Amino acid sequence: MAWIFLFVAGLLETVWAYSMKLSDGFTRPVASIVTIVAMIFSFALLALAMRALPLGTAYTIWTGIGAVGAFVLGIVLLGEAVTPMRLFAAGLIVSGIVLMKLSSPA
């Protein structure tokens, strides 16, 4: 169950990062509220996952899912640049996530 909590927490990190961008510095109320609510639930699920998972594993995977998710949303929804170097960097993050999962005893 901890891995499910961690995965959903990572997805919510992506949500709050994207909605924070849309909040325009917390000047747009709906996007600001979505950001804060997603943050709360993301942190809560991360805390639940950390009951069973090592700190380094949980935190690395949580931030990795959020980083890659934000990267993908930036490209797909915000028209951000797709360059070979950015794709390579995202691939390294995904590789790190997979290796952390494989190396975790839990």
UniProtKB/TrEMBL annotation:
Family according to the record: Belongs to the drug/metabolite transporter (DMT) superfamily. Small multidrug resistance (SMR) (TC 2.A.7.1) family. Gdx/SugE subfamily.
Subcellular location: Cell membrane
Topology of the protein relative to the lipid bilayer: Multi-pass membrane protein
Keywords, comma-separated and alphabetical: Cell membrane, Membrane, Transmembrane, Transmembrane helix, Transport
InterPro entries: EmrE-like, Small_drug/metabolite_transptr, Small_multidrug_res
Matching PANTHER family: GUANIDINIUM EXPORTER, SMR FAMILY PROTON-DEPENDENT DRUG EFFLUX TRANSPORTER SUGE
Superkingdom as given in the UniProt entry: Bacteria
Transmembrane segments: 33-53, 60-79, 85-102
Name of the protein described by the UniProt record: Guanidinium exporter
Designated gene of the protein: sugE
One family name in Pfam for this protein: Multi_Drug_Res
